[in-house]
Write a structure and sequence with these properties.
Blueprint lengths: L10 E5 L3 H13 L3 E5 L2 H10 L4 E5 L7 H10 L6 E6 L6 H7 L3 E5 L3 H18 L5 E4 L2 E4 L4 E4 L2 E3 L3 H12 L4 E2 L1 H9 L9 H13 L9 E4 L3 E4 L2
Parallel strand pairs: 1-2, 1-3, 3-4, 4-5
Antiparallel strand pairs: 6-7, 7-8, 8-9, 10-12, 11-12
Helix pairs in contact: 2-3, 6-7, 6-8
Length: 234
């Protein structure tokens, strides 16, 4: 299974009070395809985390008001499990053990190479996706998929999917825009050797369309590609 990091744009929260650094980072991260929110202190970061779906956070240690450690401790206490990459200045003595106990996932010491930061972020997101521990959200149409909770909502109202329907949808999202054969889907989603004429996939696709498509008879998201399989365009 391919990690969806490059396909689903990740929402990133940057908490950094140093204006020029924040600007440089935001520009570069946006160029890399991240959707970037920026806060200059810990309190506003915690407020924003309550209302916005954030996949990964870059958190400066020394901030006005509460520091990065405190922000980390607080967000873990609230049950938020998104990965946190903490930034520290070289002069700051950081007790990594304390930091990890409080819930940071990785550290980077300033000044750092942008390539290093991007690599660390990608690694954190990949780990999150594999372990399904962080918040992973994907929006299409008027629907929102929360991979961590294995939930889907339409304008806030839950849409009930079976676990196989959910896994099938997840596979589609991870391979958005690609044609997936029935064999591929059986293999990845159901995990057994496909019998070439199995109707399992078609039955589940039909039921996903019923639940997700505005007009199931004229699908907009899960497209049939004649003789080849299906393509997700959401
Ligand atoms: Ca700072």
């Amino acid at each position: 299974m391919t990690a969806p990091v490059a396909r689903v744009s990740s929402h990133l929260l940057l908490v950094e009070d140093e204006e020029s650094l924040a600007l440089t980072l935001s520009d570069r991260l946006e160029a890399e395809g991240y959707v970037v929110e920026h806060c200059i202190d810990g309190e506003s970061a915690l407020t924003l985390l309550e209302s916005q779906p954030i996949d990964v956070m870059i958190l400066d240690l020394m901030l006005p008001g509460i520091d990065g450690f405190e922000v980390c401790r607080e967000l873990r206490q609230r049950g938020l499990r998104l990965p946190v990459l903490m930034l520290t200045a070289r002069s700051e003595v950081v007790d990594k053990v304390v930091g990890l106990k409080l819930g940071a996932d990785d550290y980077l010491t300033k000044p750092f190479e942008m390539a290093e930061l991007l690599a660390r972020l990608e690694a954190l997101l990949r780990r999150t996706t594999k372990g399904q521990t962080g918040s992973q959200l994907y929006d299409f149409g008027d629907l929102r998929v929360d991979f961590r909770r294995a939930e889907i909502t339409r304008e806030g109202e839950p849409v009930s999917l079976s676990s196989m329907e959910f896994r099938l949808l997840q596979e589609f999202i991870e391979h958005r825009g690609e044609v997936l054969s029935r064999e591929h889907l059986l293999d990845e989603v159901w995990g057994y050797e496909a019998t070439p004429y199995s109707r399992t996939v078609d039955v589940h696709v039909a039921s996903l369309r019923q639940k997700l498509e505005p007009t199931p008879s004229h699908p907009r998201f899960i497209i049939t590609v004649h003789r080849r399989g299906y393509r997700f365009d959401g």
